[in-house]
Amino acid sequence: MKKEDLMRDPTGYKGDLRERLIRDKIGVWSIVKVTRGNSVYEGVVLPRSEHTAEDYLVVKVDTGYNIGVKITEECTLTEIGYQKGHYHLPEVAVKTKPELPNVSLLGTGGTVASRLDYRTGSVLPAFTPEELFSAVPELMNICNLTPKKIYSILSENFKPEYWVKTAEAILQEFRNGASGVIVGHGTDTMAFTASALSYFLKELAAPIVIVGSQRSSDRPSSDGPMNIINASTIAGYADLAEVVVCMHGNTSDTYNLIHRGTRVRKMHSSRRDAFKTLSDIPLGMIDSHQNISFFKDDVKPRGKIEDTYLDTKIDPKVAILYSYPGWDPEILNSLIDLGYHGVVILGTGLGHVPSDFFPGLQRAQEEEIPVCIVVEPLYGFTNLRVYETGRDMLALGVIEGANMLPSAAYAKMIWTLGHTRNVKEVEKIMTTNIAGEITNREPNSGYLLMQGIEENIKKMTTTLDPNPREHYWGTQADKEKK
Amino acid sequence: MLDPNNISFEKLGFKAGLEVHHQINSKRKLFCHCKPALRTNPPDYLFERKFRPVLGEMGDFDEGMLIEYEKGYRVIYHAYSDCTCLYEQDEQPPFWPDLDAIYSGFELSHWLNCSALVDVAIVARKQYLDGSITTGFQRTLIVARDGWVEVNGKRVKITNLTVEEDAARKLKTENYGRTVYYNLDRLGIPLVEVITDHKDCSNPKDLKKLAEIIGLTLRLSGIGRTGIGSARQDVNISIKGGDRVEIKGVQDLPMLDTLCRREAVRQDMLIHIAKILKEQGFKPDDLEHTYYEITEELPTESIPEGLSVMAIRVPKFNGILGLEIQPGKDFGQDVFEKASLISGILVDHMFHSDELAETAQRKKKDTIPFLISLIDKKIDNKIRKVLYLKDKDAYCLAMGKNSWTIHAMKKIIERLKYAIKGVPQETRRLLPNGNTEFLRVIHGKDRLYPDTDTPALDLDLQKIQHLKEQVKKRPWELEKEFQEKYGLEFEHLQNLVHENRLLEFIHIVNKNSISPKLVYSYLTETMKHLRRKGVDTSKIYLEEIMEDLKNAYSVEKPSIYDYAVAKYLQEKGDKK
């Protein structure tokens, strides 16, 4: 096909309609006139959404609306012009400012600013520095940001190998002089990546901030811009050398929380403040003026970049199981049959499994497959010594995962098995704290789930940010800062 | 002196149209299951947001959107546990839309003779950065095009009919308009928007009738919600040689006449100003973006701390900024209002050199703005020297925080450069006196893009066809019938519909020989009087009314009104 014809391809259209469009030499971006009965539509042909019926032509009419027109034999269809849509954010000249820290942004598929793919209705990231700075101009005053795309996948399609590649890419950025690294990540499995990176990067000397957006970045109200502004500040300036997740702290655009990578979990399917630290308080927060404050006193400070090294040996043959009433013991057996090397089980309550699982646990023990128990309630510690079931489970060799989150335990098992298959050694590593995934105490404030009926809660929910960020306008603000 | 009451709409080439927004009488909100109810009690919770523009589908930032972004709002929401949920908070994707409301839109398009009904409804997003919608976009779907209504014997085209979610209610602003409060209760209530061709009405009388006809259609069909705030219209006005100006949120129809006159006068004056500028050889490049800090030239002790005064040169504008373009408002103020809204600097903190004259518009006000009271001939001379001004040149001042002031100056220059082109296309706000002021640049098509959260809705085409059977006599058909058959006017029809007595009226006058005028006055005026006396008139049904009318005749009471009052008040007394 010639380039011209390629451009005129009726992208996405199928069946009879596609044939007719090709015959009439009408493609996407053609300006057409469609007559259907008494109605006449004029507009630009858009690539068909994959979710609409086959015989509908989607036309953007002059008012900006998209109209789906059912094309039948009776309709007439004439091309009267051509208009190519193309995305460009206004260009912004990007200059390196020597006084600002260098920060790298590694893109994995999460978006902070984006444009729209109307064919699938999905969102494409804005990713070059020019695009990012024009979408979020505040970044220019915070750091010299270098974006790099390492891959472009939805976070639900992540695999442990990608954690390794990400860790390697991060170390490379530190070696090249980055003061901090931001990882743009889809939010679904962000916490898994955060945990894995926490184990992979040894003697970490600078911040790794994982960030994303809960409300898609193609909307004017997205949380993405504020999240990336705050992540850039932490990466560039915070005296912190840990893997952290930085997302909205509440539903307002007022502050973000800084969560330790091994203690954070996505607790809501769509809210901006979905990310919570479980069984502890967050490391800190960053307010609307980008002031950072830490709440915990064990935050690891920055060190020497030369000391940081990678330990990314992994064995991904690990499964997570969930204990529930009616759970079939064959599920565990089949995992062993499939040759799995390790299992993490979310046990009910303090970590229990039904007693008909004991033969399976025994088989795992005999075949030297470590089984680590974490708690289905997500908050709190395992304790298999309180009830007889638990004591029986311990006798069958299960490992108590203490207060590890399922994501933290899973990533840790993968990492551990990459180093040893010796069950005793695996148990030792799994029960020893490496990166905050196990704490030895749980403060009361680690579990403050408000229910909306508490006395004084209205005061909390109706109190506004006392010190909101002042607005400024583009280049003048730059001048004033200097 | 301008005299808006003495103009010829025909000579001016006046053209107008409407965008009528009317809430649909629905059981739920359009994209969530919250009840469509408005609240006056204190909110259960508050939250705040900021907004940024995103690319439109064809890849451009909408210019109107960029202006919105420059305003830099902090937006605070009042929310309620019982009538707002995570959807209104923009914390979750939409639920499946309320199809009943969408079918109501189709039914209305039959009433309005639309010939092009869509076969598949595509939900689009229309960007709003003013905070009135938490997502930053309004979900809207076009239902039909190409309809018409009849107004005073002429056809007015309906170009588009859409179903969309209503926006949040603005409560107040603070911090020079930079902080905006909204009540979330109204957000998401389904609306129909009926857009008429903005060139089809050539005078305010037709325009008002058009609004009434559409409103009446919504009443007669039962599609519209009733009650305060359920309807509002935007008015599009242009005159010959000008451009389309949209005036938002007109709730009060009697205001339309004043509004049209004052807006027509303003546009006429803007065209006049463009003509003068051309004659004087003005070019947009004569205006430079150079802002002079002149705080020192003023009595510094009177300038509040932390604020500075900046000046710009406005060559060839002497005498033009002071021209009255709407009653009590000169051209300079019209420009300042725009700059003020975008920058946050108060209009009172801006000044133009024509305001030195004793006849200046703002000097006629009860309280003279601070900056005007500060500038006298001596200071004026100093400023003119600093700015190297010639006789025909003017200047503008603004006082405020440095960055805000510069922003204001930038906007003033941009607006003045446009003066040579006459009327800028913009969206304006109606003021209580009937004048208008800048609200935003007119939103273009670039702010529309498809909703990624809702797939295209496959509709029941047969059902849509069947909805045509719901259509009864349209208002203009009834109007004719009223005139020809009953000797009554449109106004009488309107009153009967608003009293919910149209069906009874037609029944009675067709079955009896009672004078239609009498029936009308009984069903409207008498009922109103009875209600005022405390009678629940909604409990007075057709049969009883017929009875009353007959009795009133037979007993030869002085009037049917006295008869009814005597009867129902006595009944009321008996019940006690």
Question: What is the number of independent domains of chain B?
Answer: 3
Largest sheet of chain B, if any?
Answer: 11 strands, mixed
The whole-angstrom Rg of chain A is: 27 Å
Note the total helix count of chain A.
Answer: 13
Per CATH, the class of the largest domain in chain A reads Alpha Beta
Query: Distance N terminus to C terminus of chain B?
Result: 62 Å
Proportion of residues in extended strands of chain A? 15-25%
Structural class of chain A: alpha/beta
Describe this structure in words.
The complex is a heterodimer of chains A (482) and B (576). Chain A is α/β, with parallel strands linked by helices. Chain A is built from 13 helices and 23 strands. The longest helix of chain A has 16 residues. Chain A starts with a helix and ends with a helix. Chain B has 576 residues and is α+β, with helices and mostly antiparallel strands. Chain B folds into 3 domains: 243 residues, no CATH class; 166 residues, GAD-like domain (Gyrase A, domain 2, 2-Layer Sandwich); 103 residues, no CATH class. Chain B has 16 helices and 23 strands. Chain B is globular and about 90 Å long. The chains are: A alpha/beta (482), B alpha+beta (576). Chains A and B meet through strand 2, strand 3, strand 4, strand 7 and helix 13 of A and strand 2, strand 4, strand 5, strand 6 and strand 7 of B.
